Amino acid sequence: MVYPKSNPNYQRAVNEAGATNGQPAPNLNGLPNNQAPLFSESDYGYYDNVDYAELSGNVIINQGTQQIEAEKVLLDLSNGIAAAQGKVMFTDQATGQQVSRGNALDSNAPNRSSNNPQANFTEKASKGGLIGVADSLNYNTETGQSTANDVAFASVELQAHGYAKRLNRPNDSQYELDDVMFSTCPPTNRKWQFDAKSIDLDTDTGRGEAYNTTFRIADVPVFYLPYFNFPIDNRRTSGFLLPNASISSESGLEVDIPYYFNLAPNYDATLNTHIYTDRNPMVSGEFRYLTESYGEGIFNGSYLPNDKEYNDEDRSSFFYDHYWSSKSIPRLSGDAKYSYVSDSDYLNDFDTLGLSDSTINLPRRARVNYYNDYVDGELKVETFQTLDAFTSNGKPLEDKDKPYSRLPQLKLDYRLPWAKSFDITGVHDSAYFKKSIDDGSENEKSGGRIYNKLSAVYPMEKSWGYIKPKLSLQHLYTSYDEDSLADNQLSDKDGSQSVFVPQASIDAGLNFYQAGSPFGAFDDTMGGYRLLSPRLKYTYSPYEDQNDIPNFNTRIASINYEQLFSDSWFLGHDRLQDLHSLTPGINYRYIDATGVTRFDGSIAEQFYIDNGRVTLDDQQPVFTSSSSGMVWDTSTQPYNNFWVDVSGALTNDYDLNYITTELRYQPSDNSLFNVGFVKRQRDENTDQLPLSAFTASAVFPINNSWRILAQGQYDYNRDKVLDSLVGVDYEDCCFGFAVYGRRYYNDLNVKDKPTQAIMAEIRLNGLGSGSSRLTRLLSDKILGFEPVQTAWKD
Description:
Blueprint: H1 8-20, E1 38-41, E2 44-47, E3 52-63, E4 66-76, E5 81-92, E6 130-140, E7 146-155, E8 160-171, E9 174-183, E10 192-202, E11 207-217, E12 220-231, E13 239-240, E14 244-248, E15 252-264, E16 267-276, E17 282-290, E18 296-307, E19 313-325, E20 332-341, H2 346-350, E21 361-371, E22 375-386, E23 405-415, E24 423-434, E25 447-457, E26 460-462, E27 465-480, H3 482-488, E28 496-510, E29 512-515, E30 529-541, E31 555-556, E32 570-571, E33 579-591, E34 597-608, E35 627-639, E36 642-650, E37 656-665, E38 672-680, E39 691-701, E40 706-715, E41 720-731, E42 735-744, E43 755-764, H4 773-781, H5 785-793
Antiparallel strand pairs: 1-3, 2-3, 3-4, 4-5, 5-6, 6-7, 7-8, 8-9, 9-10, 10-11, 11-12, 13-15, 14-15, 14-43, 15-16, 16-17, 17-18, 18-19, 19-20, 20-21, 21-22, 22-23, 23-24, 24-25, 25-27, 26-27, 27-28, 28-30, 29-30, 30-33, 31-32, 33-34, 34-35, 35-36, 36-37, 37-38, 38-39, 39-40, 40-41, 41-42, ...
């Protein structure tokens, strides 16, 4: 059933909807419509002085917020029944209003379209009116019930319009439509519609129910549903959400049918049925909650029995996140996290477009945090589920390569408040680390570690520069547990180590200021100033033997400009580095008159006076070169819509260590182009793997409704596209869809078998469609994507 837009009743309803703009008619003292007095006017009238009246010629009847216009109206005053005939137009202009769920927790509860449990639960309930044009209308002035035949209707509050063979309004909040076309698109630009045998709308619940429905896009039938429950406003209400469909090389065709449960103002749930052509069906669910005193959280889980593509094994997952903030103690907060998957291939198989972070170690932890002006502390218990994976050499992961559990760990950064001329700060990190070795890959090395560092700095700062001498004392104590003592055949004395290492440093810098643009490259209208800041740091800490101390969670930092000025190359507190170095560096900045940093460039190199001797383990090379090699970092914005970022490092022989280049161009608010290049060599110190790759991405509109989105990474050394995505996206005021495909490799396995997926999604504005999976993926892949996406939606 497709209705032409040229229908005169349709055009009249649309015009009236636009003209009234949802403004309420007068309602004396806010009385309900069936209690409000009835007013009428017409060119001609007849009244028998008993219970019957006829009005004809430009008849208008008002009762509360309701109005009827017609050529002729017959009134049975004894029964309160009015029958309108000829060019009938009826309106109910009750205004929409913002209402709350009546729960103090609503302002912090999740929104249905977000996975963030801290999102907003506040809802909008529209008590929407209706404007219709019909051939005839029967109306009960006492009950408010009305019935119209052959009616075209439009509603500003519901943002809907359509046709119906019959429209019945049994009360102020319900509408029953037979043989109906319904759409939430603008009436003059209808992109999609439902043709249904019947539709029931309820403005109290904010839901509509359609029976025997055919969904059409541009008058083309797409699918049929015997029953469909859909929202007509922004309130959370139970019902089916829009289904999704995708095709992948792992699962074939997948159709997802989600159902949303609005359980209470402070918790809800979603149950999703996944139907695959190559696997058995899977059920997944999400439960979100918000409490008044104990925080908020989210559960996610799934179960697939007898997977035909996985040796008929059961597949499952469970994820839990909880967040808490104390109301009685300011700045005290906590969180908990639990992760589980049934097998190492789960994330790759059921995360069709790679939206989840592919990781080897899935965390499970509970944590409490507190901070104030003098202390920042964290107490946590953490362990991991380590998935079966492969190392960079293609060997299966062994127990010795898995992370230690913290059972528990306490970390403190503090500052002493009574020090006036000196800045006295401290670091404390104590933990019990546990890792069971069951495969014989090495002897077990679990135990406790206590680390403390106390530092005193005497800062001398002026506008032209600064000098910061610093003295520190570090202490490290470790002790094996009983299992590790037995496994390594050590006594209690031999299994404990204590090391003290002092450290001294002087950090000094100068600031040279000059007004104007650099080298006359810009005209005087740019204005601003230039700042040249040379810097020199000297660091000395002696060597202490630590080869017998276990390494629980320490690694060597990657080289970059800021790292050259740190006190240690070790990330973690299992080693106290012997470092005798001199680090010169220089930074140059130009800031224009509007406050935009047009250029920010730094270059430095760390020179070693003595060779380093402390190592992470017996196989780890030490810092025996004369210098770190030169390091640079630059960021430029020569124009308001163009950015260039270049960073890199050379070895001590001045060969290339790595270089990273990123060019970003944004010609308009809703378009973006990125081009990047990455080349890095193997670095044994940091376990840096070699890579030579080009990256590129583009988001650009074809017109106001269509745009292209693409991103990719190409490894030219291996002649392999590591990750690629291309999609087309359509968006207008009522309808949107996207078709896109992706080809990528599983990070957990070095097998040369990429995953390929094709995804299609439809977004119907006004029917509660959720956020786009495509845009969520690209927000992590494309630098600067979020403001471009916001501009496109606006």
